Amino acid sequence: MVSPGASFQAAGALPAQVTSFVGRRQEVAAAKKLLGHSRLVTLTGPGGIGKTRLALRVAAEVQRSFPGGVRLVQLAGLEDGDRLARAVADELRLGNASAREPEVSLAEYVADLRLLLVLDNCEHLLDACARLVSTLLAAAPGLRVLATSRQVLGLGGEQAMVVPPLSAPEPSDVPPQAGERSEAVTLFAERAVSVCPDFVLTPEKALAVARICHQLDGIPLAIELAAARLRSLSVEGILARMDERFDLLTKGSRSAAQRQRTLRALIDWSFDLCTPSERLLWARLSVFCDGFDLEAAEAVCRGQGLERRDVLDLLSALVDKSIVTCEERGTQMRYWLPTTFRQYGREHLAHCGEERMLVERHFHWYRKKADLAEADWFGSRQMSWLAWFQTEQANMRAALELCMSKPDRAESGLRMAASLWSLRLGHWLDFGSLSEARHWIAQGLALAPFPSPAGARALLVDGTLALLQGDPDTARRRMEESHETVQHLGDEPALARARVTLAGMISMFRGKFASAAGLLEEAISLHQAADDPDSVATASYLLAMVCFNLDDPATSTHAQRCLSLCETHDAKWSLNHALWVVGLEEYRSGNMRRAVTLIRQSMREKLQCGGRWGIAQSLELLGWCAAAGDRYDRSATLLGAAQAVSQLSGCDLSRWGHIKPGHDACEVLLRQELGKDGFTTAFQAGTKLTLEQAVAFALDEKRDAEPPPSDGKTIWASLTVREREVAELVSQGMTNRDVAARLVISTRTAEGHVMRILGKLGLASRAQLAAWAAKQHDC
Hints:
Layout: H1 25-37, E1 40-44, H2 51-62, E2 70-74, H3 84-91, H4 102-110, E3 115-120, H5 126-139, E4 143-149, E5 158-162, H6 176-181, H7 183-195, H8 203-215, H9 220-228, H10 235-240, H11 245-248, H12 263-272, H13 276-285, H14 294-301, H15 308-320, E6 325-329, E7 332-336, H16 339-351, H17 355-376, H18 382-391, H19 393-403, H20 410-420, H21 428-431, H22 434-447, H23 453-468, H24 472-489, H25 493-509, H26 513-529, H27 533-549, H28 554-568, H29 572-588, H30 592-609, H31 612-628, H32 632-648, H33 660-687, H34 691-698, H35 712-718, H36 721-731, H37 736-743, H38 747-761, H39 766-778
Parallel strand pairs: 1-4, 1-5, 2-3, 3-4
Antiparallel strand pairs: 6-7
Helix pairs in contact: 1-2, 3-4, 4-5, 7-8, 7-9, 13-15, 13-16, 14-15, 14-17, 17-19, 17-20, 19-20, 20-22, 20-23, 22-23, 23-24, 23-25, 24-25, 25-26, 26-27, 27-28, 27-29, 28-29, 29-30, 29-31, 30-31, 30-38, 31-32, 31-33, 31-34, 32-33, 32-34, 36-38, 36-39, 37-38
């Protein structure tokens, strides 16, 4: 008699698959390799990720290596762990006539066999599976076990392999043709044809399908359920209803297990396997957008049934159960709830009446962090804060959305926006959108019912951002509005100092350098009196650029003051810009070799923090140096590259008043030397370079040069796990778009990883990185 839940297959046979197997080449190879080295391999991952299909594919490809056969036992329908051994015995045709315990019969039967036992869906019978597998492996040296489970069995010698989502492109920046190459889109298209034989994946549909697959986290079962809806909806119709996914994705195959027929049933199965405390944490974690760290989880999710000290253990349990995913980021772990699991948790959060409380906590946490970052910015933790800003953009947007939705919260929102995009935190030029920053501030100002110090400060910040977008008139109006506001409230010294700095910037951007010099000198005196070294360094940086345009030797004094302050406070991001302005003074003095050395040093440092605006400035100044050295073609190409990179930050630095004179003079010289057509050709060549190609060109290093000799093991160890993954994929010839699709990240995130890796390794191009990574792999 066959036990409930156990499949009955012909001896040695695996079930025939009625649908195609899509992608997973790397995963199949990795699982086969693990089976060659370990006697117990467990494929883990969330429900619907494709663990069973992968296990069956691997088993089919290795079955010739097992003369004793391959046996599959499907455990999803088996609820009693005490019947597990009987289910396996039935699959091996041992019958139940013997009076002995089935474990004993099994151990004797497999003792001399070279056999692969596939145990599918072990998560609800973990203890029973662990006991039986341990017994059988001890009795049978030739036995291999391939298990699938949402959680590892926890046995010694077990090799766990996390089954990732299918590669799905980031729809915002991946063209349709790239989407067609992704595994997720391919799966959707193949299943769509089985539902609608005339379905054709046009470029327009491919983009919509890419968005569907991205929102479904690349989970194969969810994608198949979505494709099944093509019987009654268009691709665009399915995409429009993604926010209602649990009601939409309900048309699974009747031959599938009950829990795999709807998306909700699939997630219900995982939810039911959690303890009440784990379910509560799952629901509360849904308030985070695009991930969180342990500190944030403890601060936001504790209380009302969860103690702070319990959060780590509960979070680890959710990771073990394949509900929360994580990866190492520098010295910390970063955690995520996949979008589908997050939406499910948010429903439960609302159901238990805690949604409003958790949203409030989320906002207060990120406002507190923004304030702390601003206060702590100019110091040794600058690069850590920079990484935090890059990582937490989605959470900060969610916090701002909460504030900007109600008038009584607008002042809090303005305070947060002003902190995030203040002149002190100049990272926005490298990583944020100037237009987005101004959007948040405009919303807050429109909602704020009364004038406030937060509003006055936000007006100054908005004026600075407008100036960087090339709009000095708006900058002036904002500065005056800020001054009028504080006149009604009583002026604050910090705001008064900031207004003087902004006034100096406005004059500088308008090309009124004499006026700018007086204002910035006053600002430096005020900042020094207030013991504000960050603002002193910033004003000195600005004043050095003003003096450069006046051909004033005082450029050196101000540039060196900026450099000295950055070095004293170990502010490494600011130091990159200080090196640039010192290089600017060397260029003014005619010391071209020294200028180029400093600018390249600055650029190499910027690679580690991915600063696009700073890199654009370096490209521009290197273009001037090249022209001074009669390298006219090279100069024009560098100017073109500088324009392209600066526009990625939402600005055109060649239009800035303090850059424009030098840029225009250089361009006039180049047009004279190269002619109109020659200049245009070389300039356009620069605009077509990728960021990495522009950097490699600027550093004047051959793209196929041999990577520098070094202790490869030490440097490899310095990379994060994600950076090593990216380096491996680059060594296989993948573009940033390909890497993004494979790792289910945005192209910009992939680009940032590559730039940081180049910076850490001291390399200039992808070709060098590919050669270096291949060498480490061989070693």
